[in-house]
## 1
Amino acid sequence: MGPTILITGASGFIGGAITDQLIDRATIRSLTSHPHKNRFAARVRSFPYDFDQPARMAEAFRGVDVFVNSYYVRFNYGDETFELAVDRTRDLIAQAQAAGVRKIVHVSVSNADERSDLPYYSNKGRIERLVRDSGVDYTILRPALVVGRGDILVNNIAFFLRHLPVFTIFGRGDYRAQPMDVDAFAAVAVDAIGGDHHGQTVPVAGPDDWTFRDMVRAIRAAVGSRALIVHAPAVVALVGLKVAGLFLGDVVLTSDEVKGLTREYLYAEQPLRRGAGFAEWLAGDGVASALGRRYESELARHFRQ
């Protein structure tokens, strides 16, 4: 039944959206830290990561046509670091090479650059180079900000707007971002899996650009919040986020993530634009009523078993 596609985290946020669009026309496998969390049951065969002995992952790659990779970490936590994520991605690419995988579709991020002083973006750039130098056909997709059910950033903005009387924006809030619906992003990835964007690095975004301030205002209106939106220097706002993180048992945002946001790293010039606009997505059936009802923890989702 069609090609065999191996997806990192096929039950996750981005991987799950891609799997949804391919499940009836391809054989899907998943590489994951949580093989027991398989929302597709027997329709997707799950394999655990084994970076201590990468050769044990060879079975996951055997007979695979396309490898869809989004493996990374959002921040350094314990033994999990950006540098380790680069080394582990090198192992995944080596397995793809050895198995004769014909194409890699790699999910990167807008403005990935080895020269960046922000480790998240510099190590994303290093991984892009590994993909380009692999000798395997590839497409690198660079989304700026992917939104949808299960996304962390927009959901947690809504959570704080629902539960706090004041919401603080870093600085003036006029820095731009390019939200893109996860299903639209998945459709671009499916096109790349099918052969589009051969050997290209493609920035992708929704149909319109937003300032962060206007995004927050739109989320506030959608969820019916009466929170007062105030502006504060990033250093002041970060103190509040660290306090919130202590209560929530999570890392809400890191200082580097705030720098990336305010430097417009979530914005790219002339991206490939697809999907519905952010306002249209917010107005979608059931979106606003569910958004921010509970806090989504990065540590619980990706770092704690």
## 2
Amino acid sequence: MRNYAANSTVAIVVYDGATAFELGIACEVFGDSWPAILGVPWYRTFLCALRPGPVTVDAGFQLQVEHGRDRIVSADTVIVLPSVAAEIPAGIPDVLRQAHARGGRMVSLCTGAFALAAAGLLDGRRATTHWTECGELASRYPKVTVDPGVLYVDEGDILTSAGSAAGLDLCLHLVRQDYGAEIATQLARQLVVPPQREGGQAQYISAPMPEPDSASLFADTLSWLQEHLNEPVTVEELAARSAMSPRTFARRFLAGTGTTPYRWLLRQRIQLAQRLLEVTDLPIDSVAETSGFSTAANLRKHFGRAVHTSPQAYRRTFQTRQAS
């Protein structure tokens, strides 16, 4: 398994018309201000274009880009930004193919997926983009399995995200992969965003949270739940804490988060188990009990489904990665 963490290189690919919002996300997450705050070596990040020189982003301001295609091709992780332009600039697909062929991890934010698709890198793979553009992506590139109902798709060496804030979710997902849950959670706190939104969560939540007083009770319930993940809990009990009927609670929870109470709770427990495996030497039985899975067998079952490895293997991989 390739180690993408400390001191690996990140190339953020920009071209005329690239969107300033996603540029800001990538620069903020992978920028050089975090080592002093998080206490770990960080990525080495480069702003790149096909050739060094001025690039004008969609907001109208101009960037002086110092790095060219050689830096893109040699990077460990390549992040492709979306663009307001209808066509992918000539030369971009070729340099992306070269970067991937050399072993680079390819990441697109929002409609940056069109550039990966134009390079043929999404053929036979599952991918996503902004929900308004999923139909166009599927029509233009029929070999791509486009999923409009998720925040991001992780295909291992190629990752794609939906629109706008989903790009931040994917960037935090990369940090979580590379540095573990504890560092990713600390970073999310610094950015004042949720530690993790599951990739399979719906892109577009059509119904807002209900009136403020109910939302406040709802938030209090979730805060309480995060502090009691090791305790057995039912939807009925959560509904009672929120002064709602179980049916109303489940419906409003889905409307407000895009997922069910069960899946939300499971994700929180998995995340806690990851952090315990990373930062403690607790036996697996104790990790299972502390994170609310009760038994090691139950932890292994749910952990394997969510993380695609066993708790023991996750701990060994993380410790090896940290040592290296």
## 3
Amino acid sequence: MFCIAHSNTDPYFNLAAEEHFLKNFSDNCFLLYRNNKSVVIGKHQNALAEINMDFIRRNRIPVIRRISGGGTVFHDPGNLNFTFIMNGHEGHLVDFRKYTAPIIEVLEKLKITACFEGKNNLVIDGRKISGNAEHVYRKRVLHHGTLLFSSLLDDLEGALRSTPQKYKSKAVQSIRSRVTNIKEHLKQDIDVIQFRDIVMEHIMNVFPGASSYELSREDIRKINKLRNEKYLTWEWNFGYSPKYEFEKSFIINGEFIHVHLNVSGGIIQKAMITGDYSGKRNKVAVEKLLEGSRHEQAEMLERFESIPFSEYFSNITAPEFVKKMF
């Protein structure tokens, strides 16, 4: 088994690296890495329904879709990510307990009692330290999980706080859990890098034939290509969201507005605006401008530049209107 620990903290690169080793290698692999602040959503989730857009934008936190299912997680340098990519037999590849067991063993060595709970979580005293997800590709499985070691939990809460009731779809919705950092339960003072090294040492000891692997120039070239062409794109991170309906009512400067959107592939297919508001022109023109737009602020604002917005909604500016759509 190839054991890979590197210092690159670019979340786009690291998610691309997982897919690279899953699809281009035949060997079993184990990866340990950290990411800069980022929100990572499951393959079948609606990105907008999972995040606090104001917090995300204010703190410039990227939102990235992974190839596995499951719920949304928050990454930062205080969170350690582990990934098993293993060969197996069809029908016997998915096994969350198998791939979290070595992590429980590491924590036992550090005098921490952790256990597997629910479908895919590791907890300490009932509080979550690890969320896990899996993806099967041919006769290989990718199992990856988070390990909250010294993460900024206020940022985690702020980034993931959302209002999914605005969105109606078949997308997978995250289940929020009480969380804790592993560091809070340690009897000894170690940092996340030392913890990473302890995890890697354990894996190399318990898996026969395990050996260190350094990324080659060709690996890096291929990973960066996948990073730039897939993981960095709006089409993958937001456009891949399942079809959904967005519905929201709001009041701005005494004007009541109700917006209903049908969205597919991240593109607004149908827009309906109703309410109690003043304006000289028929709102149909605004609805038509929304149709065909990405459900994102920048493109919607750009489209509204082509019309005298205040003549449709007398007491509302285009930026005020668009901000309420998220």
## 4
Amino acid sequence: MTIAVGGWLERFLGRGTASVTVPPLDGALKPNSLLEEAQPGITVAAPDNLALLDGAPVWSSGAQLLRLDGDKPSPFATLQSTVTALACSDAGLIAVACENHGISILDRGGKPAITALRDAGKYSCVTALTFSNNDTLLVCIGSTDNPISAWQRDLLEQHRAGQLLRIDLKSGEVKQLANKLAFPNGVLADKDGSIIVSESWATRLIRLGPDGRMSAQLIEDLPGYPARLARAARGGYWLTVFAPRSPLIEFVLREPKYRRAMMAEVAPENWIAPALQSGLSFHEPMQGGALKQMGILKPWAPTRSYGLVVEVNENFVPIRSLHSRAGGRRHGITSAVESGGRLWLTSKGGDEVVTINL
């Protein structure tokens, strides 16, 4: 009864869970142009899912896996459909999830390494993978209600249908560690055996025990939607944020009748929802005078897409960030890895793999 009254009061006053305010980009998250001003990267269509294979970066583009051949990207494996998640083990195994074709395990040459992975083809909407050891794979299922291509719909329908699975590659045993997650979109096995998961729709990072029980909320109320995680050389972690939050989107998320009408009558690319890229059409929301005045982009212009990667220390306190702001092109940062003093980033919205000398 108390919870019901408290929820009604929050909606009436517009505060708490009913608030449409968004945390400001301040402190270590203060906007800059470091990401946008970095040297020219590698142009490739919708790069995604960066991982380190034998210390060298590999990534996906559509159904292909690519790695550097000199200074140019070279495909070394072609899968059945679009790659949605990727991870590499210390032993050189490559775990790949494909839309509509489940999970495959390849060797470092891109050839099948494990062919008897039980029920591997049934897994859909796989958003992230990581090896906790050479024989154990952790799998994030973003949603059991929507395909990964419908991630905007999943947010607007406010689903919490994500799962975290653990797969024993030797026995093929699959165990569900957690469910009812708000679109888990990044996973990392920590040194103490715990598991760090980013929940995009809950805009937070959480820590789970080896049994899948939540033990801590590491970061909450982020100003954007978190994606994949990677270790930083200084002992902390790199966290990518693939799209920004905004008061308009927060308001729409609290109006179910409007959302249903919008999704039924408006093309998905024009929904009031976060995006990996924006500014491509005048039909998009938040255009016109809200963005430009006399042809000049306003410094406070709202944006549906953004480029952001954050370094947090071992206590998950942000210590620095790199941005591509409104009007920039390096938006939709979905993954990052650090290797040899360089940070590699996939700008899925900007069709570019970006490297930054740290």
